[in-house]
Amino acid sequence: MTAQTLRLGDLKRKTEFDLKPNATERDAIAKRLGITGVKKLTFTGSLSPLGKSDWELHARLGATVVQPCVVTLDPVTTRIDEDTSRRYLADMPEAPDAAEFEMPEDDTAEALPETLDLAAVMEEALALALPAWPRAPGIEPVEIAVTEPGQTPMTDDDAKPFAALKSLQQKLNNDDPDSA
After folding, report:
1. What angle do the packed helices 23-33 and 118-129 form, to 10 degrees?
2. What is d(CA 81, CA 129) in angstroms, rounded to the nearest whole number?
């Protein structure tokens, strides 16, 4: 894969790209992402002008990745085919300094950088597309309950908002002789 850093100020028209990292580059990406391997990886698309100074990226990410199963640690191979869009805006509003703020509805918009590293965009898109909890075929989710010694652990059913009310209603119905 050749260097894929573009100076946006130098571009005048639509620019197409086709990134296909070699085995060494894929191994480095897998290491940075903390996964077992990246067997195949392509990132193909275009960067187009959007108005006078903004840019829009549309690309197709294709990858075959290997991750450890979250239950057995056996290798799990996953195929990823996903579209990626980004808009790079010259007049991007500043993020507030507050500890809490609402995310904007448009999560594809970013501040216009001086240079754009297409390989970094590809790696970010891959990181976002990875399965969060890969499981080997036939492996069901594992329920883990942890609590203080001598206490009853909370279950998923206990966390449901109306579970306690239903239990109370059943108890009241069983205690009420007129409910029969």
Report:
1. 50
2. 9
